[in-house]
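Need a sequence for this fold. Nothing fancy.
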């Protein structure tokens, strides 16, 4: 196995390792790095031959490790990708017999918020191994990924989310929560965000700034929400931790609407609504990352109608 921090990627693969090889020549498909549905191999370690086979370019002698290991793989430094893809191999953990494996992570370190999520999912942090040099394992469990970004999920992924939700459950229920971006300077701004806060606050929503909260509070807030609303993106993936059969509202524009929110709602059995704006600025080369605006009066009228329908 070759670990490492994923670096520059492209159509010809990526740099930074993240590769699993059996018997020195067979690449393991379920261990490939996958982004936007496309498997990627590290071009600094392997080369694809004209006959479709792969040639290993590295001849460094690996470190030998005895015992049982469990592949977590790539944990992703991006919050949203971590919640969807970084947790995607942990579904098998609850089904293992009474064993005490080590957990293998490709990246050389974990952020504190990642450690909190992994611990809640049942990973003992003292048994996490970061692969910094080529390593050969005696036994390695390689679970298939239970989530494919923007495309598909499985009930097994939902079991992981709910285990985390149960871990951080604060016992509160019935809250109306709006995940605000008014203090979050980034691309995809929503124009007059403070006015959006006012629209939701006047209708009984708590205005929450998730980036200012620790993981436990973020998850507990989502868990206790009867309605979770916010702009499409990483913060709204907290809906994965809602209790079953609640409601969610996604605000977005036509160039930034993916299936991930719908997949989450499906497994949460949530009643989900979307408010989609047509007003997108030209302040960025990529329409997905452009700023956009919302007609606040129109949103307020539609929000009132939606809230009344749910009573």
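Here you go.
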């Amino acid at each position: 196995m070759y670990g490492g921090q994923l670096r520059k990627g492209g159509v010809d693969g990526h740099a930074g390792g993240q590769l699993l090889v059996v018997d020195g020549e067979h690449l393991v498909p379920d261990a490939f790095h996958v982004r936007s549905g496309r498997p990627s191999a590290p071009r600094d370690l392997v080369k694809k031959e004209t006959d479709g086979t792969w040639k290993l370019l590295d001849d460094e002698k690996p470190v030998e490790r005895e015992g049982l290991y469990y592949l977590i793989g790539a944990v992703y430094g991006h919050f949203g990708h971590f919640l969807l893809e970084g947790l995607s191999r942990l579904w098998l953990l609850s089904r293992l017999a009474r064993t005490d494996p080590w957990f293998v992570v490709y990246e050389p370190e974990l952020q504190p918020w990642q450690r909190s999520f992994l611990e809640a999912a049942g990973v003992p942090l003292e048994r996490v191994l970061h692969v910094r040099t080529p390593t050969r394992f005696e036994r390695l469990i390689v679970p298939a990924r239970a989530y494919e970004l923007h495309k598909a999920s499985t009930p097994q992924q939902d079991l992981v989310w709910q285990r985390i939700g149960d871990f951080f459950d604060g016992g509160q229920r019935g809250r109306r929560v709006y995940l605000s971006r008014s203090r979050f300077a980034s691309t995809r701004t929503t124009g007059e965000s403070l006015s959006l806060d006012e629209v939701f606050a006047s209708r009984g929503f708590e205005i929450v700034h998730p980036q200012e909260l620790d993981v436990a509070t973020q998850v507990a807030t989502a868990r206790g929400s009867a309605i979770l609303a916010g702009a499409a993106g990483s913060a709204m993936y907290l809906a994965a931790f809602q209790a079953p059969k609640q409601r969610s509202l996604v605000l977005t524009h036509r160039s930034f609407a993916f299936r991930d929110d719908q997949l989450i709602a499906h497994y949460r059995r949530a009643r989900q609504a979307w408010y989609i704006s047509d007003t997108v600025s030209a302040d960025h080369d990529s329409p997905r990352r452009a700023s956009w605006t919302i007609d606040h009066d129109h949103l307020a009228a539609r929000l009132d109608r939606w809230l009344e329908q749910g009573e």
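For context: Residues 199 and 300 are 6 Å apart (CA to CA).
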